Amino acid sequence: MMFKNKHFTCLTFIYVCSLFGGISGFYENETKKELLKDVTNIRARFLVFVSAQLNNCNATAASPYLKPGQNFSTAPVLNVSTCDQGPLMYKIQANTKSNIMTVTVTFGTSLYFGPPPSCSFHWKGGYQNPTAKHMELSPLPGCHVQVTDKESNKTYLIFQLLMWQWF
Questions:
Q1: Same structural domain for residues 29 and 44?
Q2: Which of 30, 45, 116, 123 is within CB 3.0–4.6 Å of 163 for a Cys-Cys bond?
Q3: Residue environment code for 102-121, b if the CB has 16+ CB neighbours within 10 A, otherwise e
């Protein structure tokens, strides 16, 4: 064995790995900056949760991969169990100075006959990390919206970014 002290060998290995992790993180950030120049190259899947008073239903569904900027006539229809269905679409706006994107999700719910509900959230291109102070936070970035129909029935929608692909 080259090193007699096993702890020294282990610490050296950890230090070297952290150096390479830092270097790869630098390249990852540089690559992300390049990708942010054209945010139409991100396909995304969303978790959609519906809680509807009208039919006393709660359900969650995962969307297929979606392309940003589709309109309602070309967006795929998402069935959220027997609770709700409608076209799901999203758009992304990038701020290349801050490396933060704004994602706006819109769902054409069949339970509400007004403008399609939508909400927005900020996204840095990765999962969120809960902290010791805020362990209740989900690692999935997202937003929620509440709509009320003419009969005062409320529908709550939660959208979370589940997966994404840069292409």
A1: no
A2: 45
A3: ebbbbbbbebbeeeebbbbb
